[in-house]
Amino acid sequence: MKQYIQITCPHCKSEDLVKNGHSENGTQRYRCKACRGSFQWNYTYRAWQPGIKEQIETQTLNSSGVRDISRNLKIAKNIVIAALKKNSCGGQHRLCRVLETACPARD
C-alpha cells in the first residue's frame, strides 16, 4: 500500500508544484508554479534545513561563540562563520538591524 505525502511550498504554502530535477546527492527537487521558488523536501545536510540560519542569529545574539553554535546545531563551524559573514554586510540584513537597535551608537 502506497502512502502519499502532500507537499507544499515552504515559501508561499501553495500545492501547485512540479518536479525540478535532482540534487547532487539524488534527492528530488521541486519548483512552485505560484512563486517560482525551488526547494527540496528532504534535506541531507543539516545546515540547509529551514530555520538553521535563524537559530544561528538567535544564538549569536545570546552571546554564544561559533564553536558553541556549531556544537548545539550539529553543523560545521565553517558554516556558522559563513552565515555570520553573510549576515553582517553593511547593515542591510536582519541581524545588523537587530544589533543596531539593541546597541545604538553613542556620540
Q: Can you walk me through this structure?
A:
- There is one protein chain.
- Helices cover 35% and strands 13% of the residues.
- The chain is an alpha+beta fold and 107 residues long.
- It has two domains: 44 residues; 57 residues.
- Helix 2 crosses helix 3.
- The mean pLDDT is 80.
Summarize the structure.
Pfam families: HTH_Tnp_IS1, Zn_ribbon_InsA. This protein is α+β, with helices and mostly antiparallel strands.
Q: Could you give the distance between the termini?
A: 69 Å
The portion of residues forming beta strands comes to: 5-15%
Tally of DSSP β-strands: 3
Rounded mean pLDDT score: 80
Give the tally of structural domains. Answer: 2
Oligomer: single chain
Radius of gyration, in angstroms, nearest whole number: 18 Å
Please list the strands of the largest sheet in the order they lie side by side: 1-2-3
Number of helices, where a helix is a run of at least 4 consecutive DSSP H or I residues:
4
For the report, how would you describe the main beta sheet?
3 strands, antiparallel
Structural class estimated from helices and strands: alpha+beta
- Outline type: elongated
